[in-house]
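Quick board copy: two proteins, each given as sequence then C-alpha coordinates.
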Amino acid sequence: MRIRRNEIPPDETSPEETADERSRRPYVVGAVAGFVIGASVIGLLWAVSGAGDGAAEDARAACAALAKVVQSLPSDRTQQAALPSGVVSHAIAARELSAAAADGSAVYEDLADHLDGVSRMVISLNLADPAGRHDLTLALQDCARV
Protein backbone atom coordinates (compact mmCIF):
# COMPACT_ATOMS: atom_id res chain seq x y z
CA MET A 1 0.00 0.00 0.00
CA ARG A 2 1.39 3.28 -1.06
CA ILE A 3 0.84 6.30 1.23
CA ARG A 4 0.76 9.81 0.02
CA ARG A 5 2.54 12.51 1.97
CA ASN A 6 -0.58 14.18 3.29
CA GLU A 7 -2.35 10.99 4.25
CA ILE A 8 -2.05 9.21 7.58
CA PRO A 9 -2.39 5.46 7.58
CA PRO A 10 -5.62 4.34 9.30
CA ASP A 11 -3.86 2.25 12.00
CA GLU A 12 -1.60 5.03 13.25
CA THR A 13 -2.65 7.86 15.59
CA SER A 14 -2.78 11.42 14.50
CA PRO A 15 -0.36 13.97 15.93
CA GLU A 16 -3.28 15.62 17.77
CA GLU A 17 -4.08 12.43 19.71
CA THR A 18 -0.44 12.03 20.66
CA ALA A 19 -0.40 15.58 22.01
CA ASP A 20 -3.55 14.86 24.05
CA GLU A 21 -2.01 11.74 25.49
CA ARG A 22 1.14 13.66 26.43
CA SER A 23 -0.93 16.38 28.09
CA ARG A 24 -2.65 13.77 30.31
CA ARG A 25 0.60 12.31 31.55
CA PRO A 26 1.31 15.02 34.20
CA TYR A 27 -2.23 14.63 35.54
CA VAL A 28 -1.91 10.88 35.82
CA VAL A 29 1.50 11.16 37.50
CA GLY A 30 0.10 13.79 39.87
CA ALA A 31 -2.91 11.63 40.72
CA VAL A 32 -0.73 8.60 41.44
CA ALA A 33 1.68 10.68 43.52
CA GLY A 34 -1.24 12.18 45.48
CA PHE A 35 -2.66 8.74 46.13
CA VAL A 36 0.69 7.44 47.40
CA ILE A 37 1.26 10.47 49.63
CA GLY A 38 -2.31 10.33 50.97
CA ALA A 39 -2.06 6.61 51.71
CA SER A 40 1.25 7.20 53.48
CA VAL A 41 -0.21 9.93 55.67
CA ILE A 42 -3.24 7.78 56.56
CA GLY A 43 -0.96 4.84 57.38
CA LEU A 44 1.24 7.04 59.56
CA LEU A 45 -1.75 8.43 61.46
CA TRP A 46 -3.14 4.93 61.92
CA ALA A 47 0.17 3.66 63.27
CA VAL A 48 0.52 6.59 65.68
CA SER A 49 -3.05 6.29 66.98
CA GLY A 50 -2.68 2.57 67.62
CA ALA A 51 0.60 2.88 69.49
CA GLY A 52 -0.96 1.77 72.80
CA ASP A 53 -0.93 -1.76 74.13
CA GLY A 54 -4.29 -3.35 73.38
CA ALA A 55 -4.25 -5.62 76.44
CA ALA A 56 -3.45 -2.73 78.78
CA GLU A 57 -6.20 -0.60 77.25
CA ASP A 58 -8.68 -3.45 77.71
CA ALA A 59 -7.59 -3.87 81.34
CA ARG A 60 -8.01 -0.14 82.02
CA ALA A 61 -11.46 -0.22 80.42
CA ALA A 62 -12.39 -3.25 82.55
CA CYS A 63 -11.32 -1.39 85.67
CA ALA A 64 -13.36 1.65 84.61
CA ALA A 65 -16.42 -0.57 84.22
CA LEU A 66 -15.70 -2.14 87.62
CA ALA A 67 -15.57 1.33 89.18
CA LYS A 68 -19.10 1.97 87.88
CA VAL A 69 -20.24 -1.33 89.40
CA VAL A 70 -18.68 -0.52 92.78
CA GLN A 71 -20.37 2.90 92.85
CA SER A 72 -23.75 1.23 92.40
CA LEU A 73 -23.35 -1.57 94.93
CA PRO A 74 -25.20 -1.03 98.22
CA SER A 75 -23.00 -0.35 101.22
CA ASP A 76 -24.69 -2.97 103.38
CA ARG A 77 -24.09 -6.56 102.36
CA THR A 78 -27.65 -7.71 101.96
CA GLN A 79 -28.42 -11.18 100.70
CA GLN A 80 -30.58 -9.98 97.81
CA ALA A 81 -30.62 -6.47 96.47
CA ALA A 82 -32.20 -4.57 93.63
CA LEU A 83 -29.50 -2.89 91.58
CA PRO A 84 -29.86 0.19 89.42
CA SER A 85 -30.17 -0.44 85.70
CA GLY A 86 -26.89 -0.91 83.90
CA VAL A 87 -24.96 -2.41 86.81
CA VAL A 88 -25.22 -5.95 85.50
CA SER A 89 -24.20 -4.72 82.05
CA HIS A 90 -21.15 -2.98 83.50
CA ALA A 91 -20.20 -6.11 85.43
CA ILE A 92 -20.45 -8.22 82.30
CA ALA A 93 -18.50 -5.62 80.31
CA ALA A 94 -15.76 -5.61 82.94
CA ARG A 95 -15.58 -9.39 82.80
CA GLU A 96 -15.41 -9.50 78.99
CA LEU A 97 -12.84 -6.70 78.75
CA SER A 98 -10.64 -8.36 81.35
CA ALA A 99 -10.91 -11.65 79.44
CA ALA A 100 -9.79 -9.84 76.30
CA ALA A 101 -6.88 -8.31 78.23
CA ALA A 102 -5.91 -11.75 79.55
CA ASP A 103 -6.01 -13.13 76.02
CA GLY A 104 -3.64 -10.36 74.96
CA SER A 105 -1.26 -10.70 77.90
CA ALA A 106 -0.95 -13.28 80.66
CA VAL A 107 -0.28 -10.43 83.12
CA TYR A 108 -4.03 -9.78 83.31
CA GLU A 109 -5.18 -13.36 84.00
CA ASP A 110 -5.67 -12.70 87.73
CA LEU A 111 -7.74 -9.62 86.95
CA ALA A 112 -9.90 -11.68 84.59
CA ASP A 113 -10.39 -14.41 87.20
CA HIS A 114 -11.37 -11.92 89.90
CA LEU A 115 -13.73 -9.98 87.66
CA ASP A 116 -15.37 -13.24 86.65
CA GLY A 117 -16.15 -13.87 90.33
CA VAL A 118 -17.46 -10.32 90.75
CA SER A 119 -19.71 -10.63 87.72
CA ARG A 120 -21.14 -13.93 89.01
CA MET A 121 -21.90 -12.25 92.35
CA VAL A 122 -23.61 -9.29 90.66
CA ILE A 123 -25.58 -11.41 88.20
CA SER A 124 -26.87 -13.64 90.98
CA LEU A 125 -27.74 -10.54 93.07
CA ASN A 126 -26.20 -12.33 96.05
CA LEU A 127 -24.10 -9.36 97.14
CA ALA A 128 -23.27 -10.98 100.50
CA ASP A 129 -21.43 -13.83 98.77
CA PRO A 130 -18.06 -14.08 100.59
CA ALA A 131 -16.25 -15.41 97.51
CA GLY A 132 -17.65 -12.60 95.37
CA ARG A 133 -16.67 -9.97 97.96
CA HIS A 134 -13.18 -11.47 98.14
CA ASP A 135 -12.91 -11.36 94.33
CA LEU A 136 -14.11 -7.75 94.41
CA THR A 137 -11.37 -6.79 96.89
CA LEU A 138 -8.72 -8.55 94.80
CA ALA A 139 -10.04 -7.05 91.54
CA LEU A 140 -9.83 -3.56 93.06
CA GLN A 141 -6.23 -4.28 94.11
CA ASP A 142 -5.45 -5.53 90.59
CA CYS A 143 -7.00 -2.39 89.11
CA ALA A 144 -4.83 -0.21 91.34
CA ARG A 145 -1.79 -1.75 89.60
CA VAL A 146 -3.10 -1.39 86.04
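And the next:
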Amino acid sequence: MHKSHFLILIALFAAIIFSCSEKESTSAPSSPIQELQFEVVDSMKVDLLEQISVLDYHTEKDLYLMKNPKEGDVYLVNGKGEILEKHELGGEGPNQIQHFYEGRFYGGSGYVFKELSAEMAYHIYDADFNKITKTRGTIKELSFLSINSNKQSFSVYEDNGAYKLIGEEPNSYSRDEINPDKIGAGFYNQVNTGFVFDLAEDSIYYFNTYPEDWTFKKEQKWIGANYPNLSFDPATKTLVSLPMMGDQLGIYRLEGNAAVYQKTVGLIHPDREEYVATKETNSIIYPGFTDVKSFGQYHILTFYTPMPEDVFNGFRAKSEEYFRDPEYRDAMTKYRKPRFIVLKGDQQIGILNELPVKGAVNLGLPDGTLLIKAADGEVERDYNLFYKVRLIEE
Protein backbone atom coordinates (compact mmCIF):
# COMPACT_ATOMS: atom_id res chain seq x y z
CA MET A 1 0.00 0.00 0.00
CA HIS A 2 1.32 3.41 -0.89
CA LYS A 3 2.15 5.72 1.99
CA SER A 4 -0.25 8.39 0.69
CA HIS A 5 -3.12 5.90 0.60
CA PHE A 6 -2.26 4.76 4.14
CA LEU A 7 -2.37 8.34 5.44
CA ILE A 8 -5.71 8.92 3.74
CA LEU A 9 -7.19 5.82 5.42
CA ILE A 10 -5.91 6.97 8.82
CA ALA A 11 -7.46 10.40 8.27
CA LEU A 12 -10.80 8.87 7.29
CA PHE A 13 -10.75 6.51 10.28
CA ALA A 14 -9.98 9.40 12.64
CA ALA A 15 -12.79 11.46 11.13
CA ILE A 16 -15.27 8.60 11.65
CA ILE A 17 -14.17 8.15 15.29
CA PHE A 18 -14.46 11.88 15.92
CA SER A 19 -17.90 12.01 14.29
CA CYS A 20 -19.20 9.09 16.38
CA SER A 21 -17.82 10.45 19.63
CA GLU A 22 -19.28 13.85 18.84
CA LYS A 23 -22.75 12.35 18.30
CA GLU A 24 -22.51 10.39 21.54
CA SER A 25 -21.51 13.43 23.55
CA THR A 26 -24.27 15.62 22.13
CA SER A 27 -26.95 12.96 22.69
CA ALA A 28 -26.54 13.15 26.45
CA PRO A 29 -28.51 15.93 28.18
CA SER A 30 -26.39 18.95 29.04
CA SER A 31 -28.24 19.29 32.34
CA PRO A 32 -31.19 17.41 33.86
CA ILE A 33 -32.68 20.76 34.89
CA GLN A 34 -32.23 22.57 31.59
CA GLU A 35 -35.40 24.41 30.58
CA LEU A 36 -36.96 22.54 27.67
CA GLN A 37 -39.06 24.07 24.93
CA PHE A 38 -42.21 22.64 23.39
CA GLU A 39 -43.90 23.93 20.26
CA VAL A 40 -47.47 23.75 18.97
CA VAL A 41 -47.66 21.58 15.86
CA ASP A 42 -51.44 21.30 15.47
CA SER A 43 -54.75 22.23 17.05
CA MET A 44 -58.20 20.70 17.09
CA LYS A 45 -61.54 22.38 17.71
CA VAL A 46 -64.51 20.25 18.73
CA ASP A 47 -67.83 22.04 18.32
CA LEU A 48 -69.43 21.28 21.67
CA LEU A 49 -70.49 23.79 24.30
CA GLU A 50 -70.17 21.24 27.10
CA GLN A 51 -66.70 20.45 28.40
CA ILE A 52 -65.11 17.20 27.20
CA SER A 53 -61.76 15.49 27.72
CA VAL A 54 -59.89 12.89 25.71
CA LEU A 55 -59.88 9.35 27.08
CA ASP A 56 -57.85 7.63 24.39
CA TYR A 57 -56.51 7.81 20.83
CA HIS A 58 -56.59 5.14 18.12
CA THR A 59 -53.47 5.65 16.00
CA GLU A 60 -54.49 3.55 12.99
CA LYS A 61 -57.91 5.20 12.69
CA ASP A 62 -56.83 8.71 13.74
CA LEU A 63 -59.74 8.62 16.14
CA TYR A 64 -60.24 10.09 19.61
CA LEU A 65 -62.48 8.69 22.32
CA MET A 66 -63.87 11.63 24.32
CA LYS A 67 -66.24 12.08 27.24
CA ASN A 68 -68.05 14.75 29.18
CA PRO A 69 -66.53 14.33 32.69
CA LYS A 70 -69.80 15.31 34.41
CA GLU A 71 -72.19 13.32 32.23
CA GLY A 72 -72.32 9.93 30.58
CA ASP A 73 -72.00 11.05 26.97
CA VAL A 74 -69.19 9.53 24.92
CA TYR A 75 -67.98 10.85 21.57
CA LEU A 76 -65.90 9.53 18.70
CA VAL A 77 -64.00 12.42 17.14
CA ASN A 78 -61.63 12.29 14.17
CA GLY A 79 -58.29 14.06 13.92
CA LYS A 80 -59.96 17.12 12.38
CA GLY A 81 -62.19 17.58 15.41
CA GLU A 82 -65.33 16.35 13.66
CA ILE A 83 -67.79 14.47 15.86
CA LEU A 84 -68.54 11.19 14.14
CA GLU A 85 -70.64 9.52 16.84
CA LYS A 86 -72.28 10.31 20.17
CA HIS A 87 -73.43 7.64 22.63
CA GLU A 88 -75.30 8.11 25.90
CA LEU A 89 -73.64 5.45 28.00
CA GLY A 90 -74.42 6.98 31.38
CA GLY A 91 -77.58 5.64 32.95
CA GLU A 92 -79.29 2.61 34.45
CA GLY A 93 -80.28 0.84 31.24
CA PRO A 94 -78.96 -2.63 30.33
CA ASN A 95 -76.55 -1.10 27.81
CA GLN A 96 -75.44 1.69 30.13
CA ILE A 97 -73.20 2.37 33.13
CA GLN A 98 -74.57 4.33 36.03
CA HIS A 99 -71.35 6.24 36.73
CA PHE A 100 -67.98 6.15 34.96
CA TYR A 101 -65.08 8.46 34.20
CA GLU A 102 -62.46 6.38 32.42
CA GLY A 103 -62.42 4.53 29.12
CA ARG A 104 -60.17 3.14 26.40
CA PHE A 105 -60.28 1.68 22.93
CA TYR A 106 -60.33 -2.09 23.29
CA GLY A 107 -58.75 -4.08 20.53
CA GLY A 108 -59.34 -3.11 16.93
CA SER A 109 -62.94 -1.99 17.23
CA GLY A 110 -64.21 -2.27 20.80
CA TYR A 111 -64.25 -0.14 23.94
CA VAL A 112 -63.80 -0.63 27.67
CA PHE A 113 -65.02 1.67 30.44
CA LYS A 114 -64.29 1.59 34.16
CA GLU A 115 -67.30 1.84 36.42
CA LEU A 116 -67.18 4.31 39.32
CA SER A 117 -68.60 2.32 42.23
CA ALA A 118 -67.61 0.26 45.23
CA GLU A 119 -66.85 -2.55 42.78
CA MET A 120 -64.99 -0.62 40.00
CA ALA A 121 -66.00 -3.18 37.36
CA TYR A 122 -65.08 -2.91 33.68
CA HIS A 123 -67.67 -2.82 30.90
CA ILE A 124 -66.71 -4.13 27.46
CA TYR A 125 -68.51 -2.82 24.35
CA ASP A 126 -68.37 -3.81 20.70
CA ALA A 127 -67.85 -1.48 17.73
CA ASP A 128 -71.52 -0.40 17.81
CA PHE A 129 -71.42 0.33 21.54
CA ASN A 130 -73.43 -2.73 22.46
CA LYS A 131 -72.34 -4.05 25.84
CA ILE A 132 -70.69 -7.45 25.57
CA THR A 133 -69.94 -8.09 29.21
CA LYS A 134 -69.35 -6.61 32.64
CA THR A 135 -66.30 -7.96 34.44
CA ARG A 136 -65.56 -8.09 38.13
CA GLY A 137 -63.55 -5.23 39.58
CA THR A 138 -59.91 -5.11 40.67
CA ILE A 139 -60.87 -3.61 44.03
CA LYS A 140 -60.86 -5.49 47.33
CA GLU A 141 -61.82 -2.74 49.77
CA LEU A 142 -62.57 0.88 48.91
CA SER A 143 -60.41 3.23 50.97
CA PHE A 144 -58.97 5.64 48.41
CA LEU A 145 -60.57 7.48 45.50
CA SER A 146 -59.05 9.99 43.11
CA ILE A 147 -60.78 11.47 40.06
CA ASN A 148 -58.85 13.36 37.39
CA SER A 149 -60.44 13.98 33.98
CA ASN A 150 -56.96 14.24 32.45
CA LYS A 151 -55.74 10.89 33.73
CA GLN A 152 -56.47 7.23 33.00
CA SER A 153 -55.65 4.65 35.67
CA PHE A 154 -55.43 1.72 33.22
CA SER A 155 -54.24 0.83 29.72
CA VAL A 156 -55.08 -1.85 27.17
CA TYR A 157 -52.42 -3.96 25.48
CA GLU A 158 -52.22 -7.02 23.27
CA ASP A 159 -50.53 -10.21 24.44
CA ASN A 160 -50.39 -13.12 21.98
CA GLY A 161 -53.62 -12.10 20.31
CA ALA A 162 -55.50 -11.47 23.57
CA TYR A 163 -56.24 -8.05 25.01
CA LYS A 164 -55.44 -7.36 28.65
CA LEU A 165 -55.70 -4.46 31.05
CA ILE A 166 -52.82 -3.10 33.11
CA GLY A 167 -53.07 -0.33 35.63
CA GLU A 168 -53.06 0.99 39.16
CA GLU A 169 -55.40 -0.16 41.91
CA PRO A 170 -54.81 1.51 45.29
CA ASN A 171 -57.75 -0.45 46.71
CA SER A 172 -56.21 -3.86 46.04
CA TYR A 173 -55.93 -4.85 49.70
CA SER A 174 -58.03 -5.14 52.84
CA ARG A 175 -57.05 -3.24 55.98
CA ASP A 176 -57.86 -6.36 57.97
CA GLU A 177 -55.03 -8.10 56.12
CA ILE A 178 -52.63 -5.18 55.64
CA ASN A 179 -52.98 -2.37 58.16
CA PRO A 180 -50.50 0.47 57.55
CA ASP A 181 -51.08 1.80 61.07
CA LYS A 182 -49.59 -1.41 62.40
CA ILE A 183 -46.89 -2.31 59.90
CA GLY A 184 -45.71 1.18 58.90
CA ALA A 185 -43.12 1.10 56.10
CA GLY A 186 -43.63 -2.65 55.73
CA PHE A 187 -46.66 -1.52 53.73
CA TYR A 188 -44.36 -0.64 50.82
CA ASN A 189 -43.21 -4.25 50.61
CA GLN A 190 -46.54 -5.99 51.18
CA VAL A 191 -49.18 -4.06 49.25
CA ASN A 192 -49.55 -4.65 45.50
CA THR A 193 -51.22 -1.70 43.80
CA GLY A 194 -50.47 -2.64 40.19
CA PHE A 195 -52.46 -5.22 38.25
CA VAL A 196 -52.76 -7.14 35.02
CA PHE A 197 -56.30 -8.24 34.20
CA ASP A 198 -56.52 -11.15 31.75
CA LEU A 199 -60.14 -10.74 30.70
CA ALA A 200 -60.29 -13.91 28.64
CA GLU A 201 -59.21 -16.01 31.61
CA ASP A 202 -60.97 -13.78 34.18
CA SER A 203 -57.68 -13.69 36.11
CA ILE A 204 -56.20 -10.71 37.97
CA TYR A 205 -52.49 -10.59 38.76
CA TYR A 206 -51.33 -8.00 41.28
CA PHE A 207 -47.77 -6.70 41.63
CA ASN A 208 -45.84 -4.28 43.82
CA THR A 209 -45.28 -0.82 42.32
CA TYR A 210 -43.11 0.83 44.97
CA PRO A 211 -39.65 0.93 43.30
CA GLU A 212 -37.08 -1.24 45.06
CA ASP A 213 -34.65 1.68 45.42
CA TRP A 214 -37.26 4.29 46.34
CA THR A 215 -35.67 5.91 49.41
CA PHE A 216 -38.60 5.38 51.77
CA LYS A 217 -38.94 1.72 50.85
CA LYS A 218 -35.22 1.05 50.98
CA GLU A 219 -34.78 2.82 54.33
CA GLN A 220 -38.14 1.55 55.63
CA LYS A 221 -39.35 5.02 56.55
CA TRP A 222 -43.14 5.42 56.69
CA ILE A 223 -44.51 8.63 55.10
CA GLY A 224 -48.02 7.46 54.32
CA ALA A 225 -49.42 5.29 51.53
CA ASN A 226 -48.13 7.45 48.65
CA TYR A 227 -49.79 5.29 46.02
CA PRO A 228 -47.67 5.42 42.86
CA ASN A 229 -48.91 6.86 39.57
CA LEU A 230 -48.37 4.42 36.71
CA SER A 231 -47.88 4.85 32.99
CA PHE A 232 -47.59 1.99 30.50
CA ASP A 233 -46.19 2.00 26.97
CA PRO A 234 -47.77 -0.92 25.04
CA ALA A 235 -45.18 -0.63 22.25
CA THR A 236 -42.20 -1.40 24.50
CA LYS A 237 -44.05 -3.15 27.37
CA THR A 238 -42.43 -0.60 29.70
CA LEU A 239 -44.14 0.47 32.91
CA VAL A 240 -43.05 3.44 34.99
CA SER A 241 -44.04 3.96 38.62
CA LEU A 242 -44.01 7.38 40.26
CA PRO A 243 -44.76 7.62 44.00
CA MET A 244 -46.41 10.87 45.03
CA MET A 245 -43.62 11.87 47.38
CA GLY A 246 -39.88 11.53 47.07
CA ASP A 247 -37.51 12.12 44.17
CA GLN A 248 -37.46 8.84 42.28
CA LEU A 249 -39.25 6.98 39.51
CA GLY A 250 -39.18 3.22 38.95
CA ILE A 251 -38.92 1.49 35.58
CA TYR A 252 -40.35 -2.00 35.04
CA ARG A 253 -40.52 -4.44 32.16
CA LEU A 254 -43.74 -6.38 31.67
CA GLU A 255 -42.97 -10.08 31.32
CA GLY A 256 -46.00 -12.31 31.09
CA ASN A 257 -48.37 -11.10 33.80
CA ALA A 258 -45.62 -9.69 36.03
CA ALA A 259 -43.87 -6.33 36.16
CA VAL A 260 -40.14 -6.97 36.54
CA TYR A 261 -38.20 -4.17 38.21
CA GLN A 262 -35.37 -2.71 36.11
CA LYS A 263 -34.04 0.42 37.78
CA THR A 264 -34.81 3.63 39.69
CA VAL A 265 -34.26 7.07 38.16
CA GLY A 266 -33.44 10.06 40.35
CA LEU A 267 -35.52 13.19 39.73
CA ILE A 268 -34.67 16.84 40.28
CA HIS A 269 -36.39 20.19 39.84
CA PRO A 270 -35.44 23.52 41.47
CA ASP A 271 -39.00 23.98 42.74
CA ARG A 272 -38.85 20.67 44.63
CA GLU A 273 -35.58 21.26 46.47
CA GLU A 274 -35.46 21.56 50.26
CA TYR A 275 -38.86 19.92 50.76
CA VAL A 276 -38.83 16.96 53.12
CA ALA A 277 -41.60 14.37 53.05
CA THR A 278 -42.81 13.04 56.40
CA LYS A 279 -45.84 11.13 57.61
CA GLU A 280 -47.44 14.41 58.69
CA THR A 281 -46.76 16.28 55.43
CA ASN A 282 -49.91 17.66 53.83
CA SER A 283 -49.94 17.41 50.04
CA ILE A 284 -50.90 21.08 49.71
CA ILE A 285 -47.59 22.22 51.23
CA TYR A 286 -45.46 19.62 49.43
CA PRO A 287 -44.66 19.49 45.67
CA GLY A 288 -45.93 15.96 45.25
CA PHE A 289 -46.29 14.23 41.90
CA THR A 290 -49.82 13.94 40.52
CA ASP A 291 -49.35 12.21 37.16
CA VAL A 292 -46.95 10.62 34.68
CA LYS A 293 -47.63 10.13 30.99
CA SER A 294 -45.66 8.43 28.25
CA PHE A 295 -45.45 10.03 24.80
CA GLY A 296 -43.31 8.15 22.34
CA GLN A 297 -39.88 7.59 23.88
CA TYR A 298 -40.52 10.26 26.52
CA HIS A 299 -42.29 10.59 29.85
CA ILE A 300 -43.66 13.78 31.36
CA LEU A 301 -44.10 14.01 35.15
CA THR A 302 -46.42 16.57 36.71
CA PHE A 303 -46.31 18.20 40.14
CA TYR A 304 -47.65 21.42 41.64
CA THR A 305 -45.71 24.05 43.53
CA PRO A 306 -46.78 24.08 47.19
CA MET A 307 -48.69 26.65 49.16
CA PRO A 308 -46.49 28.20 51.90
CA GLU A 309 -47.04 26.35 55.16
CA ASP A 310 -47.86 29.48 57.18
CA VAL A 311 -50.50 30.53 54.63
CA PHE A 312 -52.05 27.05 54.68
CA ASN A 313 -52.06 26.87 58.47
CA GLY A 314 -53.72 30.27 58.59
CA PHE A 315 -56.69 28.96 56.61
CA ARG A 316 -56.89 25.80 58.72
CA ALA A 317 -56.98 27.89 61.90
CA LYS A 318 -60.02 29.79 60.64
CA SER A 319 -62.29 26.84 59.97
CA GLU A 320 -62.37 23.07 59.59
CA GLU A 321 -64.01 23.67 56.21
CA TYR A 322 -61.29 26.02 55.06
CA PHE A 323 -61.42 24.50 51.57
CA ARG A 324 -64.81 26.16 51.03
CA ASP A 325 -63.38 29.62 51.67
CA PRO A 326 -63.18 31.67 48.42
CA GLU A 327 -59.92 33.19 49.66
CA TYR A 328 -58.49 29.69 50.04
CA ARG A 329 -59.40 28.90 46.43
CA ASP A 330 -57.73 32.13 45.36
CA ALA A 331 -54.60 31.13 47.31
CA MET A 332 -54.59 27.74 45.58
CA THR A 333 -54.61 29.48 42.21
CA LYS A 334 -51.87 31.85 43.32
CA TYR A 335 -49.43 29.33 44.76
CA ARG A 336 -50.21 25.96 43.17
CA LYS A 337 -48.64 26.08 39.70
CA PRO A 338 -48.03 23.04 37.46
CA ARG A 339 -44.41 22.10 36.83
CA PHE A 340 -43.01 19.28 34.73
CA ILE A 341 -40.02 16.96 34.53
CA VAL A 342 -39.24 15.22 31.22
CA LEU A 343 -37.50 11.88 30.78
CA LYS A 344 -36.19 10.31 27.60
CA GLY A 345 -35.86 6.59 28.11
CA ASP A 346 -34.34 6.24 31.58
CA GLN A 347 -32.72 9.69 31.72
CA GLN A 348 -34.07 13.00 32.93
CA ILE A 349 -33.34 15.42 30.10
CA GLY A 350 -34.85 18.61 31.47
CA ILE A 351 -37.74 20.47 33.03
CA LEU A 352 -40.67 22.51 31.84
CA ASN A 353 -42.08 25.33 33.94
CA GLU A 354 -44.78 26.46 31.55
CA LEU A 355 -46.59 24.83 28.65
CA PRO A 356 -46.47 26.68 25.31
CA VAL A 357 -50.24 27.21 25.65
CA LYS A 358 -52.42 27.59 28.73
CA GLY A 359 -54.05 24.33 29.62
CA ALA A 360 -53.55 20.84 31.04
CA VAL A 361 -51.74 17.80 29.67
CA ASN A 362 -54.64 15.58 28.64
CA LEU A 363 -52.97 12.70 26.80
CA GLY A 364 -49.59 11.45 25.61
CA LEU A 365 -49.50 10.14 22.03
CA PRO A 366 -47.31 7.39 20.53
CA ASP A 367 -45.78 9.74 17.96
CA GLY A 368 -44.00 11.72 20.69
CA THR A 369 -46.52 14.54 21.00
CA LEU A 370 -48.72 15.68 23.88
CA LEU A 371 -52.37 16.67 23.66
CA ILE A 372 -53.12 19.79 25.72
CA LYS A 373 -56.69 20.63 26.72
CA ALA A 374 -56.84 24.42 26.41
CA ALA A 375 -57.74 26.35 29.54
CA ASP A 376 -60.97 28.30 29.66
CA GLY A 377 -60.61 31.76 28.16
CA GLU A 378 -61.90 35.03 29.57
CA VAL A 379 -64.77 34.77 27.10
CA GLU A 380 -66.73 31.53 27.23
CA ARG A 381 -66.20 29.38 24.13
CA ASP A 382 -68.91 27.41 22.42
CA TYR A 383 -66.34 24.74 21.54
CA ASN A 384 -63.53 22.68 23.07
CA LEU A 385 -59.98 23.43 21.99
CA PHE A 386 -57.02 21.04 22.04
CA TYR A 387 -53.40 21.64 21.08
CA LYS A 388 -50.85 19.08 19.97
CA VAL A 389 -47.34 20.00 21.12
CA ARG A 390 -43.92 18.40 20.74
CA LEU A 391 -40.51 18.76 22.33
CA ILE A 392 -37.94 20.86 20.45
CA GLU A 393 -34.68 18.93 20.59
CA GLU A 394 -31.44 20.44 19.35
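Board note added afterward: Residues 29-391 form a domain with the Neuraminidase fold (CATH 2.120.10.30).
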